[in-house]
């Protein structure tokens, strides 16, 4: 999968000759790839919204009854409702799971431009990173994003004879006991860099190397621009959560006052800030290129959700609709609860009473 996505990113860079714009185009293509999953998820959420009033009525009927038999009966009725309407909660989880599976290879591709854009073999890239690391040209404590950082270093070196000489010294000036790269491997690395010089991307934005980390700003304030990336992500993720909430199903006031609804509302409030703060933390500790990609994906996701919300619209229910549906469900249950094998006074059948006294024919 990395190879396939790498080819796509390489094509995007060949088309634009700008790494940031290539990331934008790459994010757009990935959003289109994931769009079918978004459609499945949106349609499933609309179907769930259509059932929410009926599920609310079922839960309301058993409100205050916490014994095991009652709770089991309530869950059985809800599952019967799901089956009748053809709704499966897994249909909403599966698209999210598939997107997560795809997201991680995407980050791998974004932070490895030498491998996927310059098309330098992984083993050679590892040797290049080892030599540069030993030369002290990689910031301390950098655990990932080495390739995207080094790409800019190499690109600048290849623009002058002095830089080429320095590059040659970095790659071939170490003995095997100092760095785990043989002279043959170092020579191969230099060959690839020189022959792929035109393919090594410019990974800067407003003069800032996107291979560097926002947290490095505290040690070097000249990188202040990188510090903006996590906070832009924070704001956009919060905005995305806010828009998602506005575009989602809005239950009637009566449903919002249902027991347990307060806990759900509190969970939503936690999510409103939980996801943005997680995004802030994540993009603060990853290379700037990842934060830029995340910004584009968030913007495109908001656009997709807005378009899908206009195509697959949520139902709107009033308090009167809830009362009418509640009456219809009670009438339907009364008809199903008659026992034709038992004849009572006046030759009429009567509803059957369970041992738990949790039948549906309550007024």
Question: Which keywords apply here?
Answer:
two-stranded antiparallel sheet; 68% helix; mainly alpha; single chain; 1% strand; 363 residues
Structure description:
With 363 residues, the protein is mainly α. The chain is built from 14 helices and 2 strands, in the order αααααααααββααααα. It has helices at 2-16, 19-61, 68-85, 89-110, 113-116, 122-134, 146-157, 161-172, 183-195, 224-247, 253-256, 261-284, 288-311, 319-337; strands at residues 204-205, 208-209. The protein has a two-stranded antiparallel ribbon with strand order 1-2. A hairpin with a 2-residue loop joins strand 1 and strand 2. Helix 1 packs across helix 2 (19-61), helix 2 (19-61) runs antiparallel to helix 4 (89-110) and helix 10 (224-247) packs parallel to helix 13. The protein is elongated and about 90 Å long. It starts with a helix and ends in a 26-residue tail after the last helix.
């Amino acid at each position: 999968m990395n190879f396939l996505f790498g080819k796509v990113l390489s094509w995007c860079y060949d088309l634009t000759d700008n790494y940031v714009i290539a990331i934008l185009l790459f994010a757009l293509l990935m959003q289109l790839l994931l769009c079918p999953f978004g459609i499945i998820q949106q349609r499933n959420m609309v179907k769930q919204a259509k059932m929410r009033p009926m599920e609310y009525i079922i839960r309301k009927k058993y409100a205050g009854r916490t014994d095991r038999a009652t709770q089991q009966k309530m869950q059985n009725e809800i599952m019967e409702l799901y089956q009748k309407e053809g709704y499966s909660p897994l249909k909403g989880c599966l698209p999210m799971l598939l997107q997560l599976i795809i997201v991680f290879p995407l980050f791998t591709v974004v932070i490895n431009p030498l491998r996927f854009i310059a098309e330098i073999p992984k083993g050679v890239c590892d040797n290049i990173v080892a030599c540069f690391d030993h030369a002290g040209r990689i910031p301390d404590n950098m655990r990932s994003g080495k390739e995207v950082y080094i790409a800019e270093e190499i690109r600048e070196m290849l623009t002058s004879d002095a830089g080429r000489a320095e590059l040659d010294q970095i790659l071939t000036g170490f003995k095997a006991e100092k760095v785990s790269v043989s002279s043959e491997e170092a020579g191969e690395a230099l060959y690839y860099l020189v022959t792929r010089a035109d393919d090594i991307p410019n990974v800067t934005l407003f003069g800032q190397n996107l291979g560097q980390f926002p947290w490095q700003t505290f040690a070097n304030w000249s990188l202040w621009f990188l510090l903006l990336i996590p906070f832009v992500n924070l704001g956009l993720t919060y905005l995305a959560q806010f828009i998602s909430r506005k575009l989602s199903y809005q239950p009637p006031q009566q449903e919002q006052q249902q027991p347990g609804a307060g806990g759900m509302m509190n969970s939503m409030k936690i999510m409103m800030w939980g996801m943005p703060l997680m995004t802030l933390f994540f993009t603060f500790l990853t290379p700037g290129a990842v934060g830029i990609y995340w910004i584009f994906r968030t913007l495109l996701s908001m656009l997709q959700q807005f378009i899908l919300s206009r195509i697959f619209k949520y139902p709107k229910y009033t308090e009167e609709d809830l009362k009418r549906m509640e009456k219809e469900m009670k009438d339907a249950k009364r008809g199903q609860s008659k026992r034709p094998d038992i004849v009572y006074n006046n030759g009429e059948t009567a509803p059957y009473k369970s041992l738990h006294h949790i039948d549906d024919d309550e007024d």
